[in-house]
Fold this protein.
Amino acid sequence: MSDLYVVVMAGGSGERFWPLSTPRHPKQFPPLLNGRSFFQHTVERAATLVGRDRVLVATRRDLLPIVREQLPGFPVEQCVLEPVGRDTAACIGLAALTLERRAPGARMLVTPSDHYIAPFHAFEETIRHGLTLLDRVDGLVTLGIPPTRPETGYGYILAGDAVPAHPAARRCARFTEKPDRTTAERFVADGRYYWNSGIFLWAAASILAAMARHLPEHWGLLSRLRDALGAADEVQVLDAVFPQMPRVSVDVGVLERDTDVYMIPATFSWDDVGAWSALGRILPPDEWGNSVVGRHIHRESHGCVIYATTRPIATIGLQNVVVVETPEGILVCPADRAQEVKEIARMLREADR
Amino acid sequence: MSDLYVVVMAGGSGERFWPLSTPRHPKQFPPLLNGRSFFQHTVERAATLVGRDRVLVATRRDLLPIVREQLPGFPVEQCVLEPVGRDTAACIGLAALTLERRAPGARMLVTPSDHYIAPFHAFEETIRHGLTLLDRVDGLVTLGIPPTRPETGYGYILAGDAVPAHPAARRCARFTEKPDRTTAERFVADGRYYWNSGIFLWAAASILAAMARHLPEHWGLLSRLRDALGAADEVQVLDAVFPQMPRVSVDVGVLERDTDVYMIPATFSWDDVGAWSALGRILPPDEWGNSVVGRHIHRESHGCVIYATTRPIATIGLQNVVVVETPEGILVCPADRAQEVKEIARMLREADR
């Protein structure tokens, strides 16, 4: 892994974890797992994989204080700071430029910072498979997750042709973003579909070349940024140029359009921790089947997700309910409706306007 | 009502309203209704009935600071202060002694301070009926509530013989405390049973005489207290004697044993506010059928009782659930299990021991 760098993307808004996450404190930062944030877990995993000096953190500049607080001693030079959030194509473009300038020919693993991944050795094995593939083909690689339920909130990849002389890799035949329930059920039953993890592997030069092919507007702006990187007016140019980037994800803008896109099936357990109910899948349940952070006193409550920051939460006779207490507010909702929490956050934001 | 005084009993422990009420702040004191406490509503109702200078507040001495805070300017001389709580027989005995000493021949209305009563004119009408009865008989009067549901947590009175020349009053034929469900259903269907409101009307001298007959241990101690009232060592004697009072309610200790006990059916709406679910009966519901104090943001939630002190409460898809937020903690429980909240309070107390 001698030429591999990891880019940890730590932007995001995180409304689905209200009242814990807020636009100023997205969900990758609160200590959701074992007293540490998913961001901290992600950077630690990356550092174990490639060494801390080859980890870059790409984030919004306004989130830098939280990043420094959560990663004491982490060099600010290893932070790629976006003036504003402009989705993953712009973020990854800027990170690839930065990396290619510092370490020409480098390969980069791009990972969100709010995912659950375990165990480490399986993660490492999957990355090794990906690097072996990149030794043979010059392409773009995404990690695919074997689906375990008909999730309608994810992107699906149809695995296509096998890759000669590589046991695991497949070409990506088709991407389907957020299918309806029936389609998702068909995908899961079919067996050839994988969830798109949003974890990518490629040479920095390759993703930049692909952006030049598929995202000309991004490419024009990235070219202006490239000339400014390291110059005295770097921040001013970033502030002027970066906000002009269209809001496009790298999946939609590049991967779905390119022909040399591959998928490596992940051998690790994965969860995108997209809603409070995910904690029920990740945290080990107590003897009553409740996943608890903080203090919980109850009678006959089962299958609940309980998250208390400063006060005890008492429940009586609840099944599969999420209860969260933070200084921002209290949330009570059935686990299977936890996706609607973003609507609550929206209602509050509009009411407070 | 020229010789009528009102004794507002404001002791109590109030664990059924955790996390709002605590042993140090019983349920009569938080602002549950229209921004004011049931205690404040009760004293105001009493003052409207007889004038503020004929209202006595009987409470534990340690609750006096809360009483003074809630009743600015209320004379401490009108407070009957128990060193410790010893149930209603002891409380009423001490209040009757105090009253008989200050206004010999006075009649007293004794009322808990944590009940919901409305409208005032019906309350006043019921009290007038009671006073008319006391003009004719020398006895003990309790107000009876026509039962509206088979409540198992209340005491029931079987109405007996009518009283000559009084249109409303009945003799109490039998008291039944906390019947089982089947019995309660039979009582409600029968039509001759009333809930015992715990609101009493009698001459101070009459209840003292009844205590002398039925509660000799209380009476012995009360006699020692009578000699000390107004003396320099009043507080010391109270501290020495009052804690020796047996814990007996006036219902069990006196009313169930005496022969001259009468019942006046109440014409007012009444609720003993015995649990959080009672707020659903008392507070006017919003357009979704939720009874709300504080800030509530929700999707498809109906029939809930929401009580927020400092933070918003957000709910999704809840029906008939109680959600409470206070600095003490968070409570989530189905309305029909709100009686179990005292078990939660007990579990917390034992865990914190």
About this structure: Chain A touches chain B at residues 18-19, 297-299, 308, 311-318, 321, 323, 325, 327-334, 337, 340-341, 343-344, 347-348, 351 (CB under 8 Å). The radius of gyration of chain A is 21 Å.
